[in-house]
Amino acid sequence: MTPAEGSIPPAASSAPSTASAPSTASAPSTASAPSTSNGDGELLLRAEHVTKYFPIRSGVLLQREVARVHAVDDVSLELRAGETLGLVGESGCGKSTLARCLARLYPLTSGSVVFEGQDISTLSRRELRPVRRELQMVFQDPYASLNPRKRVGEILSDPLRIHRRGNRDQIKRRVRELLELVGLSPEHINRYPHEFSGGQRQRIGVARALALHPRLIIADEPVSALDVSIRAQVINLLDDLQDELHLTYIFIAHDLGVVRHVSDRIAVMYLGKIVEVSPAEELYQRPIHPYTEALLSAVPIPDPDLSDRRTQIVLEGDVPSPIVPPSGCRFHPRCRYATKICAQQEPPLAEYGGGHLAACHHPLNLGLPAVPTAAAPTAAAPTAAAPTAAAPTAAAPAAAVEPLPHATGEAAGGEVPAEEPQ
Amino acid sequence: MTGPRDGGAMTGEPLLDVRDLKVSFRTEDGLVKAVDGVSLTLFEGETLGIVGESGSGKSVTMMSVMRLISDPNARFEGEVLYKGHDLMTLNPDQMRSIRGTGISMIFQDPMTSLNPVYRVGSQIAEQIRAHDHVSKQAARDRAIELLAAVGIPQAAERVDNYPHEFSGGMRQRVMIAMAVSCNPDILIADEPTTALDVTIQAQILKLLRKLRNDFGTAVVLITHDMGVVADLADRIAVMYAGRIVEQGTRREVFYDAQHPYTWGLLGSIARLDRPKPRRLAAIPGQPPSLLRLARGCAFADRCAHRFDLCDEQPPLLDRVGGNHLDACHLEPKQKKELRETTIHPELIGNAE
Predict the structure, then answer these.
(1) For residue A276, which of A20, A368, A422, B24 sits 20 to 30 Å off, Cα-Cα?
(2) pTM value?
C-alpha cells in the first residue's frame, strides 16, 4: 500500500502509467516509452513455436485419436524481467492453455520454453522443482483453487516445507509475513478457506504464489470471479507487490479494461494464435488487427454520452471450432475486411514499429501516428491523420476522450444537461 | 438511440410499481434481510437498470416480483403492483398466467436454464402452448419465427437441435426467444451477458435493444457492469445491502452521482474511454453481512466520508431533484466537493 516506491527499478510498470496520467496529454513523447522501458529488464522467458494439441479419442477398447483440438498453435513470445504482459482473448482462444504450457503444467506438443536461460520444456518433474520456485501461478477461481480441508497456515506453509525453506519457526514467521504482505491479518492463520470472502481468498492465492520468492507470476483471470469493488482492491494489490518485490507478471484476462490497467505489453489471442502484440497504450489507440479493433469496440463504455455516440462493430457468429480451424487467417470468416487471400494464406506476425506486431493481410490504422494521442480506440480513426502530436485543446469532437479533469469537471457542475424530464 | 432515453414521459400509471418490498430469509444464524424496503417503478417501454454487487439483493428483488422464490423460510412484505394488481396476493394459477404473457425473465446462466433433454424448439413451443390455445404445428412455426427473430441462422433446422448443440451466446438467444414468445409487457434480464464473452455480449445487448425498440417491451436489466447500463438503461437504481442507495436517470447517475457507493463503483472500473489512472479507486473492505446490518447506513464502514449521523440512523431516500433519489446524509454541497476526489483520487496527488 505504499505507492511511494514506484520509482524502484522495475520502472517498466510505473513509467507508462505516469505517462498517461490525467495531467492532460502532457507528454506524448514519454507515452512512447513503454516499448523502450520494457527493454530495461533482461530476457526472462522466451517461448518459441509453442504448440499444444489435445487429442480427441474415440473407441471402446482401442482408443484411436480421431481429431485434435488446436488449443495453442505455434506461439512465440518474449518476456522481460519487471514487465507485465497481458494476454487477452475470448474463451476458448487458448490463453489459459498457453499460460499452463509456459508454466510447464502441461507438456508441450512441440516448441520450447526458455526460462532464465534454461529450456524447461523437456525437464522432468524432479528437474522442474527449482523452476517452480521461480515461476508461480494464481488461478481464477478463489473457491476451487484452495484446499477446503486445510487451514490457511498449512496452505501457505506447504510450498515452504516442500522446498525446505527453513525450520518450523522460520516457516511460521514467513507465513505471517505473507499474510501481512497481501493485506490479511496474521491472526487468520488458523482459519479455513470457507471463512473468507472471495476477495480475501484471492489474496491467499496470491500469498501462496509469493511464498517462495518467485520472479514470474502467471495470473490466470485472477479478478474475473470477484465483484467490481473487490476487483479494484486485488488489482491494486498486485500492482503494489510488483513494485515492492520486482515481480514479472503474465496477466490473463478477458476484461480489456483491467488488462490495459495492469499491462505494459499486451498479446491478443484468437483460436490458438497470437494475432497482435503491442505496448499496452498503443494497442488501445491504434489497433492493427481487425479482431483487436472489434474486441475493443465490443467493450461497453461506462459513460452514457460516449456510449450513444460511438458506432460499435459487432462481430457476427461465434468463435469457430479449434478442432478444424479455418484456413488461412483464422479470423477471416468473421472479419469485415476479409478478401480472397485471407482464406488462402496465413498472415505472418509482422512488425509495425515500436514493438507492435500484428498478423493480418489488411492491417488497420497504419496512417495513424505511432505515438498515441488522445483518440478513443474506436473513434472515427481516419480523421485523426495528423502525425504531429495533437494539441490537447484541438481535440476534435471525434476524439471521444477528453482530459479527465475537464470531462468530469463539467459534469460536476451539477447541471444535468438539457434532455431532462421536465 | 433516439426515443424516450434519458427522460421519457414518466407520467401516468407505471406498468410495475414495487412499494416498500422487504424479503427476509430465516436461517440457522438468524434473519437475513436480503431486500430491505425497496421501491421501484417501471413505465411502459422503459429500460430500468439495477446495479449492485453480488448479495446486494438485486436478483432477489426481481425474483420476488416474479414470485419465483419458493423457500418456505422466506418472508415477504410490501406490494408489487402490476397494472394495478398486487402480485403478492395472487394465487399460483393467476400468477402463472402473468408469467410469460405479462412479465418474463431471462437468467444469467444459459447453460443451466434450458432443459438438456428436450429439443430447443419443443421447449419454446411448450411455453407458447401453455398460454395460447394453438396447434402443435402453429407453435412450432412460431418457435422457428422467434429463433429467426433473435438471430439464429437456419432457424428451421436448428429448432430440432438440443441445447448442447448451441454455443453460450446462442443459448442466451434461445432464452430470449422463449421469454418474448408471448409478447410480455416486461422483460426482466438477470445478468444476461455476465457468462458471455465481450463480443457475444455486444451481440446480445444489440438484440435486447432491438427487441425493446421493435416491440416496446419494458426491460429490467440486472447487472454489475456499469458499462452495460450506460449502454442500455434509461433509468438506473444502485443497490447496496438490500437497499436502493441511489436512483435516477442514466445521465444523473453517471454525471451527477450523489451516493459515495456510486462514486466508488464509478471509480473502481478500469475504463477504456479515459486516460489510465495510476491506481484504481477501490472501495476498501467488503460488503456487510446481511445478518447483522448496522443501525445506520449500511455503507458507513466502507465510506471515506462517514460522520456521526451515519451510525445513528439509516439515511432515507431523499429527492435530490426531479426523480433523482439518493440515500446519503451528506449535504449536497459537500458531495460536490468530495465526489471528484473520491472517484479520481489521483487528482489530489496532482494538486499537491
Answers:
(1) A20
(2) 0.81
